[in-house]
Each structure stands twice: as structure tokens, then as C-alpha cells.
């Protein structure tokens, strides 16, 4: 490949090898799994260097699950935002560090600074993509073409708060009378929502290999 890039004369066999490599590289450029492999590896190397250790850093391999409905998107967002609460690392969503919901409540992450620091540490060598903020919530729900998240931020905050409190055994069912409007609007049953939002990985792994992503809807 280096000789090809230097415009040197190559034999037919060498040109065939170059063509095969190009095909592989092109496939990798559009392969999300390969991108995550490279990203995870660089993060693991940096973390191991900081901790002065070796070995696996991530618990399991990267998995991809398509979110094909509003309910699926909501449950995935809530599941991730409530991870620190569920793990006992934070008492409330707003106190859970490194989550999107904390950043939305009190923005303080400087993406450009973070990229510069990663380049300085050698974790990444270049970054030519535009730095994008978190996808905004809709100001007004519009069923037509809509690029923003199809829920209001207040509704989402209420939903995360409701779900986080309902996770506790002594709270389950006690908040039924305070069901957030967003669940009523989407016609989603509360017991189905709690199971999906708090056990997202397990639920989607078993259910969506058989049917499209959608929470159980009430009649």
C-alpha cells in the first residue's frame, strides 16, 4: 500500500492485493461495529495507562440495537440516564455524572476542549468532523416531519424522575396517580414501561429478536 501511495510500479499481483485492501477499508468506513471496535480499543488503552494495568476494560462486546419507535427511543434514553442511579452511584438523575440528562439540566461539557485534550494525549490523531451538541427536544410536538426529539424536555424530566422512583420496590405502584403525561399521550402501559426502561438490554435482547421494537400498548 505504501508503494502504491508513492506511485511506484506494482506487479499485477500487487495491484490485486491493493484492490483487495481498498475494498476492506471501504467496508470498514461504513461499518459501525468496526468504528466502535477502534473507539473502544483507544479508550481501553488510555484507561489502562491511567490505572497502570492491563487486560479487558469493557465488560462485554459492543452490540447494536435499532430503535424503531418513539417508545423504544424513550426507554433507551431513560435506561442510560438512570444507570448511575440504578448502580447506587448517584441519588438523583441530576447528580449522576457523565450522563446526558445532567448535561441537559446544567450544561458544562466543552466538546471542543475535550477533543483537544484527547488529541494532546494521543488518544486521537485527528478530528475533522463537526462537533454536534445533544439532539434538542421539541418545543412543540409536531407529527409532521420533525428533526428534534419528539418529546418536550419537561415531559422527559418527569418521565425519568417517575421511572427512577418507581424502580424502588417500596415505590412501585405508589406513583401511579402521578403518571407523566408523555406515557398517557403515547398510550403506553406503566407496568410495561417500567420493565422496558429499567431492564432495557435484557428486554430488547430477548424480545426484539422476534418482533419489531415497541412497548406493549394498552387497548
From TrEMBL:
Among the GO molecular function terms of this UniProt record, one is:
transposase activity
Which GO BP terms, alphabetically? DNA transposition
Give the matching SUPFAM superfamilies.
Answer: Transposase IS200-like (SSF143422)
Query: Which InterPro entries does the entry link to?
Result: Transposase_17_sf (IPR036515)
Origin: domain of life: Bacteria
Q: What is this protein called?
A: Transposase
Amino acid at each position: 500500500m505504501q508503494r502504491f501511495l508513492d506511485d511506484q510500479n506494482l506487479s499485477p499481483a500487487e495491484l490485486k492485493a491493493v484492490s483487495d485492501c481498498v475494498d476492506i477499508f471501504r467496508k470498514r468506513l461504513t461499518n459501525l461495529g468496526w468504528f466502535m471496535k477502534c473507539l473502544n480499543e483507544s479508550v481501553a488503552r488510555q484507561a489502562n495507562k491511567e490505572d497502570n494495568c492491563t487486560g479487558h476494560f469493557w465488560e462485554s462486546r459492543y452490540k447494536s440495537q435499532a430503535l424503531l419507535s418513539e417508545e423504544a427511543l424513550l426507554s433507551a434514553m431513560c435506561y442510560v440516564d438512570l444507570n448511575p442511579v440504578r448502580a447506587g452511584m448517584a441519588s438523583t438523575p441530576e447528580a449522576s455524572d457523565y450522563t446526558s440528562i445532567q448535561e441537559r439540566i446544567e450544561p458544562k461539557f466543552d466538546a471542543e476542549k475535550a477533543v483537544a485534550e484527547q488529541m494532546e494525549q494521543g488518544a486521537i490523531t485527528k478530528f475533522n468532523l463537526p462537533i454536534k451538541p445533544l439532539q434538542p427536544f421539541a418545543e412543540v410536538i409536531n407529527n409532521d416531519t420533525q428533526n428534534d426529539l419528539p418529546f418536550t424536555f419537561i415531559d422527559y424530566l418527569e418521565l425519568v424522575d417517575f421511572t427512577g422512583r418507581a424502580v424502588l420496590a417500596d415505590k412501585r405502584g405508589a406513583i401511579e396517580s402521578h403518571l407523566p403525561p408523555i406515557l398517557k399521550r403515547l398510550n403506553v402501559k406503566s407496568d410495561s414501561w417500567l420493565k422496558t426502561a429499567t431492564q432495557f438490554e435484557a428486554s430488547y435482547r430477548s424480545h426484539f429478536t422476534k418482533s419489531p421494537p415497541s412497548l406493549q400498548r394498552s387497548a
